[in-house]
Design goal:
single chain, 169 residues, 2 domains, three-stranded antiparallel β-sheet, 3 helices
Amino acid sequence: MGVMTNVLVHLQEVAEAKGWRRAQRLVSVAFDSLKIRGACIYSSSSMELVGLAKRETERVVTMEWESWLKPRDRTAPEFAKDYFVFYACSIGLTNKEDHFVLPVARYATSCAQAGDISGMVTAVVGDLADYGFHTSFITSDGAAENRSFFKQVPSPPSFVRFHHALGSL
């Protein structure tokens, strides 16, 4: 769960091998959530899956969740209700063969709220920047929690660095 660093490392390696300039490393971030009916158990502090349950009414865990918890994670696991997936889509590339749309992060949560989405988006955009990719815009569907998130975001958002593709990049 969380940011998929293996995908970001691969993207960084491809970008360096092909000599992509900064303008060619512009991406959009798209996200969506799925309702998963509580069959997954996650850690609310790390937002990582730590187990699976046979039924939501039974707290039967099919894997040892204690061994999955990080030392800083002292909260009891919860049933996940929402599963978020984040995609990075290339927008700065002119060669069609180089174009990509890849999943770069996934999170589980018991209740999708604008504050949680803000934390997820901040992590995704920050990690993309750490690997040399710059977010130009963020998009999602019109779910109520997503609309609440976009209403709370300052204009321009503090976690998005805007760069003009034709400027001095």
